[in-house]
Amino acid sequence: MVKSDKERSVLYDSGLTFSEKILSIKNLAESSQGPNKVHAGDFVIASVDFTYAHDVQGPLVIKIFNELKGMKLFDSSKVLINIDHDFPASSERSADLHNIMRQFARQQGCLIQEGSNCHQYILENIAKPGMLIVGADSHTTTLGSLGTFATGMGSSDVASIFLSGKTWLKVPKTIRINVDSILHSGAKAKDVALQALRILGTDGANYMTIEWTGSAVTAMSIDSRTTLTNLALEMGAKNSVIFADEKTDAFLLERHRERGLHITSGKDAEIYKNIYIDADEVVPMVAMPGSPGNAAPLSELNGTVPVDVVLVGTCTNGRLEDLRSVAKVLKGKKVKQGVRMIVTPNSIDVFKKAEREGIISILYESGVVVTSPGCGACAGLSKGLLGKGEVAVFAGPRNFPGRLGSLDSKVYLASPETAAASAIEGRLAQFSEVPR
Amino acid sequence: MKENSGRCWVFGDDISTDTILPSKWKTASFEPSELGKHAMTGIDEQFPNKAVDGDIIVGGLNFGCGSSREQAPLALVGCGIKVIIAKSIARIFFRNCVNVGIYPIEIDYPEGFFMSSDRLDIDYATGTIKNERTGKTLTFRSIPPFLVSILEVGGLKAFLLSGKRYEDVIR
Questions:
Q1: In the structure, how many helices (H) and strands (E) does chain A have?
Q2: Dihedral, CA of residue A368, residue A373, residue A377 and residue A381, to nearest 10
Q3: pLDDT tens, B34-61?
Q4: Which CATH class is domain A15-278?
Q5: pLDDT tens digit sequence for A383-419
């Protein structure tokens, strides 16, 4: 990849953070004073490399696009219409909305995908280091695991990007979460993220970038890293990044994609806050009902929590690695009678690979229902919603009241391992409590 | 921005978009008037019947966290909400507010400063909020001028339809 002079001057500036570098490169605002470097707090008008909308926001994006007298997308190869939140349609209303999206994609000749969760599909097929991606979904931060700057916005902002390929952004400050040492077998990326949520709360990173660094992050697979960048959103982050490395290169090479532009924060860059997590001390975590910020070690829970429903999936925990670990816990065991366990692979590709590895049949043998890929119950529209008074363990992103159905239900967030162990035990339980 | 006066409704911390517009209604319609029938029903079933045009919402920390659904602030528009005052506002929700024409005010107010049904007078030029019941005032920092210029015309759609571009108002 040939770099421009401006790119070179920005990339090798030791005083800039990742976000300052990438937004300097993407900034369209003219400056007469040579290379235009921006810093935290500056506003930029940025050119967007890729944008997308799903079936909750998408129809509204299209409506606004049409009202803006939008005739043509800024670049049809950089726009994805993605049907995942209620696919296959569970209602006539959803079916009608999906058809609005299909018709739009046909007219505009842009990309369209049905079935896979949008973030996972883009991770698997489109994202590359150094891209600026804006999605009409809060969890767009997910894609930072490949070294992109990825952030979510609402329908009006995304409609305006559909039209012009541009948006305004305030250059964020950076919080760095250093995760050093080695994770124990019982603790996973989800537990690390819940530990970070315990420290930062649900707004501790509001408007900011979260960088995840440290030896434990370097050791993680792309699947695990993606759980971290995904959950950064629950801390309020604008975007979250893990600098591209050899693992990123290998992930892209395997999928026949170019290496992209590797960007890292300079050694003298201003880090607003450093947080240190000793991976060695991370234990299985849960977030108590009501908010992802209610995170605490599972061992600190008082008394037993009987569980009615166990859900695994979403853009947080529906990847192959998550399904593998659920199958590992469940193999040869049964979901406790009276408990429902529902697993939703988050993409068609994940589903196919899980099938090939025998994971799907292990899950069925254990009494799990595996649904078609997508967002699952997290979209709040279908695939396992909760009724009044039900208690669920959820390997997913958030547990605000009513997120998974009834306002009167209680949802505990946990890792896929903890979710599977809880399904076997019929109560909130960690992997180590399941008899071998 | 002109001055604004209205009655306020007070809520706590971490009011998510699942509470502002519960999932089962998020795809029901695009129209603010329809969505407004379900606004805040995740916490107060009667809110759509109580709210009137010009009302103000007061939240605690992290108001509007969670999903990016623009239908949530649109539902508040449908209830006549013109201003949201909160200790902090989640970033996507903040953008969405401006884009649909709701003025977002972030301010760290003392406990008990606002009570539901208080009438508030907001002066954007001086950045002050006056509580008519107590006579007390607070000052807030105005949002960046280019966002004011989007709000003044009623939101992002109106702004772009007027032929303006970001380049005209940023820097």
A1: 15, 18
A2: -130
A3: 999 999 999 999 999 999 999 999 999 9
A4: alpha beta
A5: 999 999 999 999 999 999 999 999 999 999 999 999 9
- φ, ψ dihedrals at A425, nearest 5°: -80, -20
* Cβ atoms of residues B148 and B127 within 8 Å: no
- Whether A32 shows a pLDDT value over 50: the answer reads no
Query: A15-278 and A285-433: same fold?
Result: yes
Chain B residues near residue A60 by CB distance under 8 angstroms: 30, 70-71
CATH entry, A285-433, from 3.30.390.10, 3.30.499.10, 3.30.360.10, 3.90.850.10: 3.30.499.10
List the single residue in A63, A206, A403 with the smallest CB-CB distance to B30: A63
**CA dist., res. A264 & res. A130, Å (int):** 10
Name the domain count of chain B: 1
DSSP reduced 3-state for B145 = helix
CATH number at residue B152: 3.20.19.10
Helices (H), A232-347: 246-254, 314-317, 320-330
* Phi, psi of B42, rounded to the nearest 5 degrees: -70, -10
Mean pLDDT of all residues in chain B?
Answer: 95
* Banded model confidence at residue A30, pLDDT cuts 50, 70, 90: low
Q: What is the mean pLDDT of residues B10-33?
A: 94
DSSP state letter for B103: E
A122-135 tens-digit pLDDT = 999 999 999 999 99
Give residue for tokens 């979250």: A240
Partner-chain contact A291 B14, CB within 8 Å: yes
Short-list A44, A41, A35, A43, CA closest to A8: A35
What residues of chain B, 110 to 149, have a C-beta less than 8 Å from chain A? 144, 146
Confidence band, pLDDT 50/70/90 cuts, at residue B171 = low
Query: Which of B24, B73, B157 has the CB atom closest to A380's CB atom?
Result: B24
Closest of B152, B157, B161, B162 to residue B70, by C-alpha = B157
Q: What is the pLDDT of residues B98-145, one digit of tens each?
A: 999 999 999 999 999 999 999 999 999 999 999 999 999 999 999 999
Rounded (10°) angle between helices A320-330 and A348-356? 40
Query: What's the confidence (pLDDT) of residue B143?
Result: 92
ipTM: 0.96
Domain residue ranges in chain A: 15-278, 285-433
Using CA atoms, how far apart are residues A352 and A316, in angstroms rounded to an integer?
A: 19
Alpha helices (H) in A331-429, listed in sequence order: 348-356, 359-365, 416-425
- Return the H-helix or E-strand segment holding A174: strand A174-180
For B37, the domain range is 4-169
d(CA A366, CA A337): 11
Minimum distance, in Å, between the CA of residue A318 and any CA atom of chain B:
18
